[in-house]
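BUG: 3D viewer hangs when loading the predicted structure for this chain

Environment: internal workstation, default settings.
Expected: structure renders.
Actual: progress bar stalls at 90%.

Input used:
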Amino acid sequence: MLRLNGQKAEAIQLFKSIDVIPKKFIRTASKYLSEYELEDLIRIYKDYHEEIYSFNASKLDNFELCELSWSNSVFYKSFILGKLIQKRQALDKVDNIQDLRDELTSYYKQRESELRIQEVDRKNIFTLEETISRIESKISTQLNNLGKEEEDIDPSEIRSYLTEGSTGIEFVQYKNKDSVFYAAILINATSEHPQFIPICDVHSLYKLIGKPQRKQADYVSRIYSSNSRGLKLEDLPNKDIRTLLWEPLEKYINRGSDIYISLTGLLHRINFSAIPLELDTVVSQNYTLHVMNSLSDLILDEKRLSVSQSNKALVIGGLEYGTEDQQTLAIRAGSGESARFHTWNTISWTKKEIEQISQEIIASGIESKILSGKYGTEEGVRENLSSGNSYRIIHLSSHGFFEEEEEGKASYTSSLAGSGFGAFQCK
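Structure tokens produced before the viewer hung:
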């Protein structure tokens, strides 16, 4: 109300005074709220931080609003879209821990019985030891994840991890009246405050990229070809991909520097490295782009540090998909879900792909583990990822799909709500 009544200075001070409250409440409530209750709470928080973005867009030179926008974008992407999901997954696994302990007790007893017989007659001791070790590791990992209290990330600390001349860009989206807009929050190592830069509205970007066409080459050419610059599209005169997304940022970025970007919404469908700058030049030729989930990933915690120092790779492909059970098919058919999700065909060339990639990985000095055929299951992948292994590289070769969407809607409610990989042997 203060902002709408023209009391903008008072509105800014109110935002500053209450900003810590919703974040602290979400951290606390996430431990006991149901999924539906938590979704409602996050929806309220989205309205709150998008109101800050909208306010900031109307007062670009206000450093206090820029700092509020920056801190809320970091919290939303790093905690809500990142660590909160991990925490909820750990909570969901609590019920399984007792089952794992019961299973472990049974194997302990089997091992004890095996050790009582003569060593030459022991047939199962190595298998039992391996199984016990695997279950103990799984229990330890789940308890460790559950017991961790996530530390608050200081947004100002992120800047110190940027090298001289490099730039961090956190893309955000917000509503203003009936339209949805994209903006970029820029930081670098020397700037005292972040900068809030409006980019474009969702409608303009959707008009340009539209839905993927049957001929993929035509679709890509229409978006990224330098010859399309200045092409007058219906309801979109002189708006190409560079004009929409890159020109608003260009004057703030040092040519030849590293750029760290975190995307949102329809921007996930844009290959920023391929945006044409001139007739024979694209972004990747003048800049080094690093795409991240959140700029907070610049701060290496113990887990990410172990991954960055890891010498292992997990390569998944050549999968056997199978057919879902009749009950699941009936449920999906009743919900009107597309029949193309009921079964997945085997992709024979993915086996050759992962074998060749694995050879390249090994040749570069990295240990490669392949999950394929009957071993390439969701359970197999989860087990490998939760058994204490830190993989520097994970390569998945499988089916991919993108749901039909209404203009602006699916892309706004969730960054990649309509996309995914075909699950392998997953019910």
